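Dear colleague,

As promised, here are the two records you asked about, laid out in our usual form so they can be pasted straight into your sheet.

NAME FIELD: protein one
SEQUENCE, THEN STRUCTURE:
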Amino acid sequence: MKIARIIMGLSLDKPFDYLIPTELESQVHAGVQVYVPFGKSQRRGYVVAVNNESLYPVDKLKRIDSVCEVHPKIPDTLLKLGKWISEYYCCSQEQSVRALLPAAVRSGKIKRKSIKLYFLGSPEEAQKYIFDKPKKSPARVKIIQLLLQHPGASSEFIRRETAAGKSVLTALVKEKIVIEENKEVYRNPFANIEYVKSTPPELTEEQKTSVDKISEMMEPSVPKPHTLLLYGVTGSGKTEVYLRAIANAIRQGKDSIVLVPEISLTPQTTERFRSRFGDMVSVLHSSLRDGERFDEWTKIFRSQVKIVVGARSALFAPFKNLGLIIVDEEHENSYKQDEAPRYHARDVAVMRGYMEKAVVILGSATPSFESYHNAMTGKYAMVRLTKRVDDCVMPKIRIVDMNTEKLKTGGKIFSGELVEEIRRRLEKAEQTIIFLNRKGFATRMVCNKCGLIATCDNCTQNYTYSRKRESLSCHLCGIVIPAFKSCPKCGDPGIRYSGLGTEKIDSIAAELFPRAKIARMDSDTMTHPDSYDKVLGDFRVGKIDILIGTQMIAKGLDFPNVTLVGIINADLGLYIPDFRAEERTFQLLTQVAGRSGRGDIPGEVLIQSFTSHNTSIQCSKNNDYLKFYNDQVAVRKKLNYPPFSHLIAVHFRGPDEAQIAKFADEFLEKLRPHISKDIKVAGPLPSTIARIKTKFRYVIMFRGDRMKEFREALREQVLHSKCPKDIDCYADVDAVNMM
């Protein structure tokens, strides 16, 4: 009798062996979901392997109760990928398998949607019925005549076209003149969206070179590398290269996955891909309703589509013949998941491509240091797009020194130059983007008398003030309270709000440009799944003159009428205690600057900065990635920081700070025998943000080049050592968030 190795949804990191009853042997394979007895209850679990023997006495093993017939099988390659994720990212097997499936599929609660369709039982009998009873039942005659022309009509269509009541249709069904059939249908996330079929434009020479290189890599006989860095300036036509690569994959009978970093980018990307490939395109992202997500996943599983577009989790689309994975804006931190399993979608994409012999394209105008380093050392191939398409010139970028400006204007938020340039755009009916990577109206509430700064009781974080809602909110724990009318400590009414956010920029812009149509995009305003589509749609057709926003407007958006980008507080990200702060600042400034001048009219960018001499700001002004990379990477190499090493952060969280510090010390001591001399250790120390949601936070950083053996020991200790009550401990492998 065969034995199934099964994992439950309990995060035990432990598979259990069960006997496969003879009558179920043909149904039980790796990847299927089964029902099994577990303790005193019945549970669902996933079969991860089928073996001929067990580590346990066979007579002690329980039997599988049944196979979950409505649940699709997880493809073998995805199971293999899940195992790698579990081992590499130091998470349990259950957590990694859970990531492979959307919750809507995993739960088993969502069912296929079905509708009733109506046909004539016999056209001849129906015709006879019309002639026999034309005056007696005109409503019935209308339905029959409609079904002669439109067999398989829905009840809604019939009622709309004939105005006949439900009882008339029911009577025809009862007399068997009309036959009723149930038909499964897919819920359609594109139901209210129309796409115009697009024709491929003529490629530039650089695009042709890129497409040819990708085509060459997709040939089965071509040796590694299988990953290519598509390094192209903003507006250079990277998306068209993606489209051509996908067309090539389709010609070879292969499937493609396209990842975008933000849900806000998905509608625009989907529009371009569906305009080219029509119904061959599916979407997977968290803004879909559960039923839509279930159906989109099912279509992919049934090989009814060839392309999926989506955010991070779309990487696990259950294609069985994968040929191409595209990671657009590969440098984005949003590809790193911040809860278990804490995987980086870019790196997992490279691994899935390796496992399935698929080509992986990493696209960016500002590549991550890790990807560029891999390209420079030959691990990845690389092609460059150095010019914009259609002879569009790169925007002219100017830096406004706000220290000098402060002397002129007395510290106004908008420099005189920016105000003048926006007015010029409004006069010419051109559009402007204003960028500030911080939401809210003000970032601090300060008492003038006693100096109190209002901070969240649950976190080490200042409250952010919203004037529209007259509220204070914490961006870490999400708590929202009414704004204070007087100081909560001394009672003085002399409260002032300082700092700057997008809400305040919106307010200032409305005063400066009262006739302009202004919209704001940040997490406070984008509260509905359709909010992105609505604002970007209005901006595209010119209903909005000035778009104000955070980093969600900084990348991937292509609006030809945007001729000015204004960047407020460009150096904001430089003050974060993170060795990647300058890299992220350069990437963000370059990306948002790239939104300007993508049409026939040349664009301009104004960068307002208090540290205009900074390398990241100067290099973004000159669009000089190579100088910036070479300057920064020299420091990284000297300190042995990524990309020359791997960084693992082990986090500890709990309500008692002394207990956490003690446990973190003990944790490190147990791990010391596995720490080689090449691995640098920092901590345990309080995290940069020392408390979130009432829990204190400590961290230990491990940095080294070859860390496989250490990572294996760390995984065992994180998952299987006993933590004191109320203390959480987890590892973040290849950490990108130092906060």
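NAME FIELD: protein two
SEQUENCE, THEN STRUCTURE:
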Amino acid sequence: MNEDQLYAMRHSLAHITAQAVQHLWPDAKFGVGPVVENGFYYDIDLGETKISEGDFKRIEKEMRTIINKDYPFERSEKSVDEGIGWAEEARQPYKVELLNDLKRAGTTVAKDLDASEMGTIAEGDAAVDTVSFYTDGDFTDLCRGPHAESTGKVGAFKLMRVAGAYWRGKETNPQMQRLYGVAFATQEQLDQHLTMLEEAKKRDHRKLGKDLDLYTTSPLVGVGLPMFTPRGTILREKAAQLSNQLRKNRGFEMVWTPNITKKDLYETSGHWAKFGDELFLVKSQETSDEMALKPMNCPHHTQIYASQPRSYRDMPVRYLETTTDYRDEKTGELGGLNRVRSLTQDDSHVFCRPEQIGAEVNGLLDCARELYGTLDMKLRVRLSYRDDSDAYLGERELWDSAQAQLKEAVLASGLEYFEQDGEAAFYGPKIDFMATDAIGREHQLATVQLDFVQPERFGLTYTDEEGNAARPIMLHSATLGSLERFLSVYIEHTGGWFPFWIAPEQVRVLTINDQVMEYVSEITKVLDATVGMKPVKFNEVRYSIDSRNESLGKKIREATAWKIPVQLIVGPKDVEAREVSVRTQEGEQKVPLDNLSTYLKEL
């Protein structure tokens, strides 16, 4: 089944869901029912009646009755006025509102009739003359389509959850109930998806973050402002250390920039006009300067570049900075570490000559590939281009050139890729790295962005071979992206069983009795002296000793619950044999004490 067929199937199931709800609650009022990733939803107003998960079985039963009757989906057209008459007679006020909007202007709303977020009418849009409807059995709905051939050809589905949603996304509008479902071509595919969702629940980074004591939040600190515990801070530091090390290996130098800046910097860069409402504003009590908390680092790095004359011999100039930025994200969009208001980026910027673009992009591609290979995550590339809107800065010719050069670099790298319009940054096209986790979900993390715009806006120059002023090209890149978002993905990818090099606690020594404590002191001397080198250096093993007067079974269970990658079990027989019993996820083995350091270095 191709994507278009799957879309039509899921779209049809959204209508069947509304039809079943209307059979069970005849006074139901309907909003929109779009296709979303892996399924669909429908916005429903039942007045004081609330749908609960306890209602799902009877809704699904009614849906299957409709499916078994195999009604054909029949398309028809009406004038807008006829459509409004239909909606009024059917007592569907939300459809009346949509149709009146279509009558007034049309194209934007028409596009969004089945979109997850209802749009607003653009000035100058033309009104439409006719609208389409689809009927199956006793149910008719305003809809652009497409649909399956009949209700009997919609695959396998399951209702998943119900949530509140304001009509057309506006808090001043009525709140509706959004009924979500998932759908796939076959029952086998549906079962696989449901199994994946169950596994995802176990791996939820919010649950593991609490269970493994990695980060916390506080209402006194504020929503979207996570705080990392000692264990979680080790994760952050080791991930950042790996990213920094890989970039330093490719000629990047570390810089540092302040957390607040004058508004003028972002007005010059173009960020203020584009993202001004996402900035935290800071007021000085000493000056009249308008300040903001730093939301991104590229404008600052342009000023470091501009701080001294540059020659073609200096190029490329490469900066890296792992630093925290701040963005005033909407409260309703914040959740766990996925989206936060304080985000730490492993940010890099290259200033280069035009003929150096290919080599620099290739170096950044190699950097990302090496990092995600270390993390055991499969990568593919999304080439993110501009669309035909006016939301972008710079001449179209420059964009076309930049997009062609990025594609050429990706083709030369041999990476799997796909192209998508409308995903570019406002100043240039991007290479976005899509990392697949252990249960098959894809996440956009690393990025490489080509920028002709900011060097122009900031007047950046270098002296070329002929002694003339030339404009550098700017490359933006982030290997991990937002460190918080990366950790949300990586915690779930590993399920909390972190590789030895990044594990907050690498080793726990479990004693069988007090008679072995002298030998344990010899073991700790080995641990203290062990220096690891891959993939990032550690000067000593991070370990603890559990010498409590508890059973060995309890100690093992607790160490396993903490997901400690290496457990060293020490009993009288180990003392006598001058060895340790090593317990990992792979099993147990005996390791001579003299070989313990070498064993740990190889993990």
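A couple of things worth noting about protein two: The CA atoms of residues 258 and 332 lie 29 Å apart. Confidence is low (pLDDT under 50) at residues 106-126.

Best,
R.
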